[in-house]
Amino acid sequence: MENIETGKTGIYVSKSNVMQYILEHRLVDAVAVLGTDPIFQEDVPKGQRRYVYDIVPGQELYSRDQPDKTKLLAALDAIFSQWQANGIREVYISVDLDGLRLPEQHYTGTDYKPWAGTSYYGIPAAWIPAAMQQARTKHGLRLGVHNHRTGQRFVGDVVEYNLPDEGQRTARITKHILGAMLAEAQQDPIRRPA
Question: Which of 9, 33, 104, 117 is most buried by a 10 A CB count?
């Protein structure tokens, strides 16, 4: 696979590279990654990128070593405003559990990523519904993407590669997040963009 900004090949397949692929092949109009640094992040100024993607490292969503929800909502506000201005009307949410902070489940998100080190800036799982609601109510974005060929709507996904599932933690967390996605997706956007 080729890196979208540098043209380098030989990059292993990961969620970041799937996002890169769908951007390159114009299967989506934009990608935003929050909490973790994807492989395709390059030192290319935003205005000079060939594709629309936003990277918000988890560290930028923290204040005094604690997650700061106002920083998340401000970052999303900037991203969603840009998308709205570019005519984007549908959002597909993909949650990678290793980018979440789930202390109540004793789940650090670094279980299968030991090279993450001691500085861990995961996003609290409880923030996901608030982010979806902001996309829907403030920016009029529809959650899920419509496949015009089949008539199906794809709302989002949750992934985790850490097996076996110790005490069904991953299964419980995944069901909760998917349930929140479906509940929010069934709501109509409150404000529709012009």
Answer: 33
Q: Which of 4, 118, 12, 1 is nearest to 55 (CA)?
A: 4
Asked whether 182 and 129 are in contact (CB, 8 A), the reply is no
The answer to whether the CB of 11 falls within 8 A of the CB of 41 is no
**Torsion region of 79: left, alpha or beta (phi above 0 gives left; psi -120 to 50 gives alpha):** alpha
For the record, the structure tokens of 111 come out as: 């279980």
Closest by CA to 183, choosing from 133, 139, 147, 146, is: 133
Model's pTM, two decimal places? 0.74
Residues 125, 17, 157, 83: is their CA dihedral positive or negative? positive
CA distances from 190 to 26, 35, 135, 165, 194 (A): 28, 27, 10, 38, 13
Residue 120 gets which letter from DSSP?
Answer: -
